[in-house]
Design brief:
The protein has 336 residues and is α/β, with parallel strands linked by helices. It contains twelve helices and ten strands. The N and C termini lie far apart (46 Å). The protein binds pyridoxal-5'-phosphate.
């Protein structure tokens, strides 16, 4: 893998831990978790890895202003605002909709982190992002535009590299080896990696990394919003571009992508009983927080697949926790 330049921003490697009480509660499969909610940078999450490469690219282009966009409670925008602050970039985040009466969760953090917020009102997000970019360019502020979710070949490269990190952890005697109290999965690995998928960069990067380094592990993205054909098409396209960017001889078609779209529930960012119960279950059994928008849907989906026997009791599976807990507070009224 030929990685592009990166700026260290994340706390890596992120921990990998067995969820013993959850596993006992389910009666198998054996569930482990990779804590990318602990990547650091003002609350952590999957975007911190992507930003190491995206902001190195921005620096390489002598950019001064970072522009990106997302939903109102975007974790991606919050992590971009934090990374921009740390590296001395100006940051503009384009958030969908109108400003709420009260700033909570990620919106509050965007503001604290010094990002300028532009609301789309009733316009399309990509259109407003492009408008902001053109305006900043015309005014000479050297803008760099990061797509929604940081999901292009540069951002996704980070998740191809994250598979290398996981593989090293599995082979590390200190973490998993034959030492007293060692956790004992050394070298054996996981049958599947499950995680929340949306704009597709994490999904694409993990798919490329696993094809190169862990070909017997299935990379199963659980959609939080996109229908199956859209998600598979996006992920296959980004995965092919990422592989070529990393000088790997792979191309991907939608049929090569493993995805499940049964757990979108009421829709993007909408919480129902299923997300609420999943959040409480993991919090009460393991002390691990997940969110209603991403990990709550994906973790609940994984548990349901285990209960239905699609994921077999004998399997050892990894949930890749992509973060999102900062949004929990924006849902406080619906969580109790
Ligand atoms: C917490 C969390 N999990 C998962 C995702 C999905 O990642 P991707 O956009 O790479 O599909 C996001 C994206 O915003 C996120 O914030």
């Amino acid at each position: 893998m030929n990685l592009p330049s990166r700026i260290p921003l994340a706390h890596l490697p992120t921990p990998i831990e067995p969820l013993k009480r959850l596993t006992a509660h389910l009666g198998g499969a054996e569930v482990w978790i990779k804590r990318d909610d602990q990547t650091g940078l003002a609350g952590g999450g999957n975007k911190t890895r992507k930003l190491e490469f995206l902001l190195a690219d921005a620096q390489g282009q002598n950019a001064k202003t970072i522009i990106t966009g997302g939903a109102a409670q975007s974790n991606h925008c919050r992590q971009t605002a934090a990374a921009a602050a740390k590296l001395g970039f100006r940051c503009i985040v384009v958030l969908r909709g109108d400003p709420p009466p009260k700033f909570t969760g990620n919106i509050l953090l965007d503001d604290l982190l010094g990002a300028e917020i532009v609301w789309t009102h009733d316009k399309e997000r990509e259109e407003v992002m492009q408008e902001v970019f053109e305006k900043e360019k015309a005014s000479g502020s050297d803008p760099y535009l990061i797509p929604i979710g940081g999901s292009n070949k540069i951002g996704a490269a980070a998740y191809a590299d994250a598979v290398r990190e996981l593989k090293e952890q599995l082979n590390s005697p200190l973490l998993f080896g034959d030492v007293p109290n060692g956790r004992g999965v050394r070298g054996e690995g996981f049958s599947r990696i499950c995680f929340a998928s949306s704009s597709g960069g994490t999904h694409a990067g993990l798919t490329v990394g696993a094809k190169a380094l862990m070909p017997s592990t299935e990379v199963l993205g659980i959609s939080v919003d996109e229908p199956l054909d859209v998600l598979k098409n996006n992920v296959a396209r980004i995965a092919s571009e990422t592989a070529s960017f990393l000088n790997l001889p792979f191309t991907f078609t939608p049929d090569d992508i493993h995805a499940n779209t049964d757990y979108i529930g009421k829709g993007y960012a909408l919480m129902g009983d299923y997300e609420r119960e999943t959040i409480r279950l993991l919090a009460s059994l393991e002390g691990v927080l997940i969110d209603p928008v991403y990990s709550g849907k994906a973790f609940g989906g994984m548990i349901d697949l285990i209960r239905k026997g699609v994921i077999k009791k004998e399997e050892r599976v990894l949930f890749w926790h992509t973060g999102g807990q900062m949004a929990l507070f924006a849902y406080s009224d619906q969580l109790r």
